[in-house]
Amino acid sequence: MDVILIPGFWLSGDSWNAATGGLEASGHRCLAMTLPGKESPIASRHGIGLRTHIDAVVDVLDSVDGPVSLVGHSGGAVIVQGAAEARPEKVGRVIYVDAIPLPDGGVINDELPASGCSLPLPAWDVFEEADLRDLTPELRDQFRLMAVPEPALVATEPVAVSNPARLGIESHVIACEFTEEQIRSWMEAGVPETAELAQLDDLAIHELPTGHWPQLTRPAELGDLLARIVGTKA
Is cis: bond before 219, omega within 30 of 0? Predict the structure, then answer.
């Protein structure tokens, strides 16, 4: 099976390198994407928004035989959500890594400090302590070196979902900062941010306790968990 991996903000496809071994050993082909405007620190990000990134993933979906597994980390979760909405017949499962799909009209994050049409990786004190769990000084330096600015419009362009077929796709959340019990309690309480999650017909939640970047802090464990979710290639 093809497994398409979408990085979160400030990361390129290379950020998945240490977490794909388990998938490849199970016979799957990993397609870790570097999204438009994130090819290098000096890449143009003018006019690139959420729809641009979703369309880039849809183009890859159209180029491969389905069904595929879509994996989205952090802000990349909304991108795989949008791709699954556009091509539900091509997607066997969606895996959200320390993130959840957003309800129609939601935005990823409209509070990040922008510099023109870019969102540079901010200072660490912008993040909550739970985000930074296990992100050692050495890993923070590594993150800084690999970081590329995010196109600002990706963070603020509203999500648009309406295709009911998306709700029947097998879905998984890998929860790093919260427990399954917490997430399900929010769903049951009707917390608005979990409205889309609560509508999914086939949802499993897996715990991987660490900070917000498990592909950096616990890459082997993340890779093994992804391999178990995707399964052994027939």
Answer: no
